[in-house]
Amino acid sequence: xxxxxxxxxxxxxxxxxxxxxxxxxxxxxxxxxxxxxxxxxxxxxxxxxxxxxxxxxxxxxxxxxxxxxxxxxxxxxxxxxxxxxxxxxxxxxx
Length: 94
Ligand SMILES: [Zn+2]
Fold this sequence. Notes:
This protein is mainly α and 94 residues long. It has one domain (3-82).
């Protein structure tokens, strides 16, 4: 079974929310987050999460150091992204 098939076959077997800061959507533990937020991440970060993800890590709760590092990178990216949402940044306008 490919990694993609594995992830697609996974269910919501426990409480697990999207990793996007503040999102409360329930997603299968094999997935990083809800579709909407996953596709908001830059492709470079998505590729890294996908590469570092190991099928089963959500069950034995032993993600690799690489996975934890890229999960943090995504979190930092989200903070930056949300910090420059239009309407919140008044600094550039006279
Ligand atoms: Zn989400």
